[in-house]
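Hey, quick one: can you model this chain's 3D structure?
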Amino acid sequence: MAKAQAAGVKVVSFDSDVTCPNHVFINQANTQQIGTSEVDLLGAEIGYQGQIAILSAEATATNQNAWIGYKKQEHKLPKYSKMKLVSIVYGNDDPATSLTVLQGLLSAYPNLRGIISPTTVGISTAAQYLDTHKSLLKHLTLTGLGLPSQMKKYVLDGTCKEFELWNPNNLGYLAGYAAASLASGIITGKAGQTFTAGKLGSYKILPASKTTGPSVVLGPPTVFNKANINAPSSNF
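Sure thing. Here's the predicted structure for all 236 residues.
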């Protein structure tokens, strides 16, 4: 990326940010909102009490770590005082590894009440396992970030009541327009600048934060459950 920038190539990252200067990050949703909303989704389902764990992707994934950071902050609020985060494990976005660490969690914490998996591979792997071990669902709740197409079966049969995600088609669409706007000189990447992303409308570049570079936020994540999992807009 440094060589590309030295040659005058514009850099856009999306989904997970990169560590190079002078680029624009297309954020799928507000980083803090993703982290805090997942804790609250789980808390509401388990009565805000009991042991919980996080099944993440890679330990080095910037987006996962940023979301987990906000999860920990949210966890300090008084209403979560009876919820205890007992472990964070990493499945490396690999189904086999995710299954192994999930089984390790369930063995180490037989009284676990909830699992947050902010990764599509992790949550679908956990849902598939819990779907074949229904007895665990008497005391265990799963949520996180997942693809509706992968999670539909598990929502409809009650394995996972609710989860979140943004529209990945729109994320790629927005990233494409941002790259085109940078390359054509419509924007330079400076905070406060705006550009139009086709059917999605106008977007503003936000200042860099502790967790990302200058960024553009696609929009708030959508909560998927039985009420909307069959909707045409959830077909991805």
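One thing worth noting: The two ends are 30 Å apart (CA to CA).
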